[in-house]
Amino acid sequence: MQMDRSAITLVQKGTSLNSENAGWTDPDYSRFHLRKNRFSSKDKQGILKRLHSQQPASVIGSHIQDDPVFWPLNRINIEPVNICNYRCPLCRTNLKDWVPRRKIELETVKTIIAPLASGLRVVNLYGTRGEPLLHPRLEEIIAYIKSATTAKIRISTNGSLVTDSRARCLLDAGLDQIVFAVDGLTQRSYSAYRRGGRLERVVEKLRRFCELKAKGGYSTRVIFQFIPMANNEHELPDVPAFAYALGVDVVKLKYSTSASNSDIYRVRDAGFRPSLKSEKDFICPQGLDNIYIDPNGYCYPCCYMEGYPNLLLGNVTKESIASIWSKSRIWELRRSFAEQIDFNPFCKKNCFGVARFRKVTLKKPPGTDSVR
Q: Which residue, 30, 54, 180, 241, shows the most beta carbons closer than 10 Å to its own?
């Protein structure tokens, strides 16, 4: 059954588009989006300007610059803990592999941050396996990074452990952004994927977080994130009003690689199933200005590569982050995405053909009340 998408309004790069007239399958919108995101020669220069805004970018020509000064490491993903209290079917938490389960040490975080402190812009304290709030010293980690850098600090959580006490601690620590992953508007649709969770409790914790933030005058950005899947796609038109009424700042749809590749969870409505048309549309920022680090100190070009020994770059407890950032494996990724050639087999298998864009912002419906 085709759903009515007229109630959903998208926000892409400052442009509001009604999905009924400019959906993923609309040819004009497709051309607009591809034109904005392809890596032309001008785009490559733009990458350099974004990554190295303190100095003028060199003309790249047909090859990227093989000089670390043009590829500063200013964004990092640190996974505080690689265990979770949920058992979502497609999550990497469920893997039984060689990766030790543990919580990252504060000293390891300091080893990572100290050499990069002056240039860091973003630190994401989450990855693909763990629930960040299972780390008992998460707030200390946030406070340390905040004191040592000017970076924006972000976490993503299932929300189940965000008690009033921890909410206050996160806000006081200086957290810049928190994403609540809420993939259903009823217990039935929610628990079909978020196994082990109770929607009512998570929604109440999210509402309370927004309330505490507003009362305390904090600037933390609160995001309600919804992954469209077969079990919840019928709820998509109701997501904006439901989420904004809780007091959140932003509502986003996130298109999951795992769900898109799953026969069980893949969205059935083609209008809400974005896909790539050719290799020229295969855009990925991994390895350009960011890196993923797991709780053991293992480094990978991106969080999806985590746990694959042949894609491991090194370990920050045994060698410098600068040495890891300069390895040939990550240079190969930079070339492939900047020039759109010779993609890594892992990238082609796991991400190619999945989504032209991963996240979409939904506008707040007129007249929506919130806790504020």
A: 180
CB 123 within 8 A of CB 112: no
Q: How many CB atoms lie within 10 A of CB 148?
A: 16
Instruction: Give which of 310, 339, 314 is closest to 324, Cα–Cα.
Output: 314
**Residue owning tokens 């590749």:** 261
72 Cβ contact partners less than 8 Å away, ≥ 6 residues apart: 51, 52, 119, 289
For residues 245 and 211, give the distance between their C-alpha atoms in angstroms, rounded to a whole number.
Answer: 12
- Condensed to tens digits (0 to 9), the pLDDT of residues 81-90 reads 999 999 999 8
Query: Are the beta carbons of 191 and 146 closer than 8 angstroms?
Result: no
Rounded to whole angstroms, the Cα distance separating 60 from 340 reads: 14
pLDDT of residue 258: 77
Predicted local confidence at residue 239, as pLDDT: 96
Contact call for residues 293 and 123 (beta carbons, < 8 A): no
Quote the pTM value. Answer: 0.81
Query: Tokens 């109701």 appear where?
Result: 238
Structure tokens given for 46 = 């733009």
**Rounded Cα gap, residues 74 and 313, in angstroms:** 17
pLDDT score of 372 more than 50: no
Q: Is the pLDDT of residue 140 over 50?
A: yes
Residues 6+ positions from 62 with CB-CB distance below 8 Å: 41, 339
CA 300 vs CA 76, 198, 220, 320: distances in Å: 11, 33, 28, 14
**Is the separation of the CB atoms in 293 and 28 below 8 Å?**
no
Instruction: Please determine, for residue 244, whether its predicted confidence score (pLDDT) is greater than 60.
Output: yes
Coil, strand or helix at 79: coil
Give the position of tokens 């985590």. Answer: 306
